[in-house]
Amino acid sequence: MGPTVRASFAAAEVLAICLAFGCTKRSEAGLGTEDASRTGTRVSLALNWVPEPEFGGFYAARETGAYRRQGFDVDIRGGGAGVPVIQMVATGRADFGTVGGDELVTARGRGADVVAVFATFQKSPQGIMTHASRHLANLSEVFESGTVAIEPGLPYAAYLKTLFPWEGAQVVPYDGGVARFLADPNFSQQCYVTSEPIAAKRQGGDPQVFLIADAGYDPYTTVVVSRRELVIQKPEMVTAFVAATAEGWRHYLADPRPTNDLIARINPSMDAPMLEAAAEAQKPLVETEATKREGLGTMAAERWETLARQLADLKVIESAPPSSELFVRVNRR
After folding, report:
1. Which residues have a Cβ under 8 Å from the Cβ of 31 and sit 6 or more positions away?
2. Is there a domain that residue 331 lies in?
3. Domain identity same for 107 and 193
4. Residues contacting 43, CB < 8 A, separation 6+
5. What is the per-residue pLDDT across 258-297, written as a single tens digit (0 to 9) for each?
6. Angle between helices 56-63 and 235-254 (to 10 degrees)
7. Total number of domains constituting the chain
8. Cβ distance 277 to 260 under 8 Å?
9. Segments forming the whole domain that contains residue 23
10. pTM above 0.70, yes or no
């Protein structure tokens, strides 16, 4: 499947006022093209990848009526490689979008005025997939021998390089798919737990995945972002959208099959067994002890601060922005 702009605490304060005193669940006039009292205010959500289970809760929110009950008619726009979601949201071409947490921090460092309002994956699904037959114990051993395929320029790759000497393994660019993995028992590659390992296993492979999060680099993933201006000016609209999104994810986690049927029609490259396996693999990364306490999509300032410091240390950004510039707390229940 990056000069820092200082943001005020205004977004969080306005949302707090909204939550404390109660706000209408309908968006204010001017956001979309429709009147919410009739057919639902048109709101756009730009995805950063093609329709897959990692977006299941958004589609479930639309199909089960969660968005409609909050007054929205949501246009979910499937993405793909290179789709500029941050730019789309920052310039108002999309009201909301999904990005990786490190992408958001990098974009903020470059002046994009966007903030996170919901974090789907509490633990990053990004990992390194190797062969179980090699009997490796950890990520460090992956880089001691064989071949490792990683997309050049990824922040987590730079992070791993600071932890482990890449002297024993041959590191090559990742080119997608699992063909090379299946053909070479000493080949390892980057992966999402919801994708390549499932594909490799179905084709007779023996994938073993080491999550990069377990090595200390753990950005929130499939993060919903919006323009800070929109969050400040229309907090009740953002609150309603986030609440509906959380409801959709609760539906999807409880029973992904109806939504998976829809995703299969939109994205026929994934069949029912693969969709089921992906939904099962991602569930413990979306629903955690933190979300059980605080609600799906929850975010912590400490997590954002740690990520920002890591990216600054890696020279991806010039300096680490405070967490108040990166996210706002919104009621998700």
Report:
1. 41, 42, 43, 95, 230, 234, 237
2. no
3. no
4. 27, 31, 32, 67, 72, 73, 74, 75, 95, 96, 241
5. 999 999 999 999 999 999 999 999 999 999 999 999 999 9
6. 100
7. 2
8. no
9. 10-123+219-325
10. yes
